[in-house]
Amino acid sequence: MLKPIKTMIEIKNIKKSFNGKDVLLGIDGVFKKGETNLIIGGSGTGKSVLLKCIIGLIKPDDGRVLYDGRDFYSGDKDAMQSIRREMGVLFQGGALFDSQTVAENVRFPLNMLTDLSASEKNDRVNFCLERVGLEQAANRMPSEISGGMKKRVGIARAIVMNPKYLFCDEPNSGLDPLTAVKIDELIKEITEEYQITTIVITHDMNSVMEIGQNIIFLYQGRKLWEGNDATITQSEVPELNEFLFSNKLLRDLRKSG
To answer: Where is the ABC transporter domain (predicted)?
Structure first.
């Protein structure tokens, strides 16, 4: 009897260049369900390009992206669309529609991609807003809520389709430290509660240390290190250490350890 494939995303030898400039130079990785998988690195290291290759916004020049063993780029359009329907994406800026209420923003994917009845959509929207603690803000406009609340609306919209895969691009960008911690906690809770395969792009060191269950470090388009929050401060990779210990708190943590 064949063993069932665990829900995961696997990338193999992902390469991408623009105008003759190499951006990704053969990236491999496995991202398991129920874990917060982080891709980290400085500006210009290729992490956002890698995310776009994984979710299909940019086609890699070479390599494979496998969703539970399904090759994302080798199938026909229907197969690719089927996988896309299983994704939820939290964009860096939130990407909310200013002319729609919080509830309407969350409902948008349901309107576009499902045949649910109006009452079923409302039930799903209300459930997701309650899950992120925004049930009281359903009728407010994006201009009437804080940056942290916008990120939570983005998370609610990302999970409204009950995705198997969740992608977060710099979820803490522009947030104060306390709000950023709350967003990290929410992403981790949702990932574990619903056993989602989650990939987070970040350069936030607090996120790395708090929710980094599986971490890939990119440097100049290459994967130089892979591990977790428990092992990252003991790295012997000079480029990773320079990236990490530019943060005084982490420098002190390493000295104390």
So the answer is: 9-245
What are the extents of the domains in the chain? 8-86+166-256, 98-162
CATH architecture for residues 8-86+166-256? 3-Layer(aba) Sandwich (3.40)
Pairing of strands 197-202, 165-169: parallel
Over the stretch 100-109, which tens digit does the pLDDT of each residue have?
999 999 999 9
Nearest Cα neighbor of 157 from 108, 196, 192, 118 is 108
* Count, residues in the chain: 257
The single-letter DSSP state of residue 169 is E
